[in-house]
Design brief:
heterodimer, A: alpha+beta, Heat Shock Protein 90, B: about 120 residues, alpha/beta, Transcription Regulator spoIIAA, globular
Chain lengths: ~160, ~120
């Protein structure tokens, strides 16, 4: 498919002097579907003409959020539904991601320190980076339990 | 996830032929890396030119690969912008030995990386 085809369901609204592009994506919480949804997200990046640093930050954050939902929220229920709403503009990417899985412990997304890396090679961490990356690259992170749904929202910023 | 390898100037160069090292492929990377490096005792360099994206599962697989090498370093070449970003944010760029290109790595006979002046 040509790269300049807009993402399905994408709509462009002129707001002030920057274009805002909205995308709705639904997937099942499976690693392959998480991987494949980025083809649609890449097309939305093109439509919204996002700068490259914001594209990278958005892909890192969304990949970690979606992996977390698959691994934790739906740990006892494979292939649960995930609904994403992305609002892309040159100023940042707002997202709302909804799933039906387990409630977030303490109703609060983790805010971990970066795992220690000045240790012996055999003691190096092989995980624990996901929430650190999400927290580092987002602002206004909010979690809510709404009925049987988890709602996670935040804004992803460009660098600097 | 597909890895291929060849020995160049006594260095085992492992090329990753996948665009993404993510949760869907991380375990395969670790297994294939172990197979390819099992009977080789010299320097090991991974060519990441084709890898456009790596998530924290992929980063974890890279750390696993480093541990498989025991006391050897794991050298990495040609990190694309999104991959370089994840390494920098997690400070893993200090744990691996990074080179701009495979050629740079092969010319650096001590395998000390781009930071070593």
């Amino acid at each position: 498919m040509p790269r300049d085809v807009p993402a399905r369901q994408a709509t462009n609204i002129k707001a002030a002097d920057s274009t805002v592009s909205n995308v709705e994506i639904q997937i099942r919480a499976l690693p392959e579907e998480v991987r494949n949804c980025f083809e649609q997200i890449h097309r939305a990046f093109e439509t919204a003409e996002l700068p490259s640093d914001l594209r990278i930050n958005t892909e890192v954050v969304l990949a970690e959020v979606l992996n977390n939902i698959a691994e934790h929220s739906y740990c006892d229920r494979p292939a649960g539904q995930i609904a994403m709403n992305l609002e892309l503009s040159g100023d940042g990417v707002k997202f709302l991601i909804v799933d039906d899985g387990n409630v977030m412990p303490n109703l609060t997304p983790p805010d971990p320190e970066l795992p220690k890396i000045d240790v012996e090679v055999s003691d190096l961490p092989e995980g624990g980076f996901g929430w650190y990356l999400i927290r580092t690259l987002t602002t206004d992170l909010e979690y809510a339990r709404v009925g049987s749904h988890n709602h996670l929202r935040a804004r992803i910023l460009a660098d600097g | 996830m597909q890895l291929s390898s060849k020995v160049v100037k006594d260095v085992l160069v492992i090329k990753v032929d996948s665009k993404r090292i993510d949760a869907a492929g991380a375990i395969h990377l670790k297994d294939q890396f172990r197979d390819l490096t099992m009977d080789f005792e010299g320097r090991v360099l991974m060519d990441l030119q084709n890898v456009e994206f790596m998530d924290s599962s992929g980063l974890g697989a890279m750390v696993s690969a480093l541990k498989i090498l025991d006391n050897r370093k794991l050298e990495l070449a040609d990190l694309q912008p999104a991959v370089a970003k994840v390494f920098a944010l997690t400070r893993m760029d200090k744990v691996f030995v990074l080179f701009d290109t495979v050629e740079d790595a092969l010319e650096d006979t001590k395998g000390q990386g781009a930071d070593a002046a």
